[in-house]
Amino acid sequence: MIMEKAQELGRLVGQSEEFKALHRAREALDGEQELKVKSERLQTLAAELEQRVAEGNEPESSDAEEYNGLLSEIQAHPRYQQLVAAQSNFDKLMLQVQDQILDGMQKGAASPIITLG
Length: 117
What we know:
By secondary structure, the protein is mainly alpha-helical. The chain has helices at residues 2-14, 17-30, 33-54, 61-76, 78-110.
């Protein structure tokens, strides 16, 4: 019975406006080829900078500047901002769901009646 209820909850979350908005924002971001190229370069730079620091070396200032510039460009992009907002709204929904589940668990634990069937 618990798995059935979990499946139903998952279906309802998948039909929520917050989930749909997150899905649309991800698809819109995926369609931005220039942003995808910048993001890939940012990831490459991040790995290189991390490796240099792990080896005890200072990052090249030009690499750090490029990293900061790319990060700023990506974060300023409207599609990225749309994704961040949609993710935040979805996260809020999931926190509310989690709070309700916790509340239900506490009430269930306090109840002397066993309802599992």
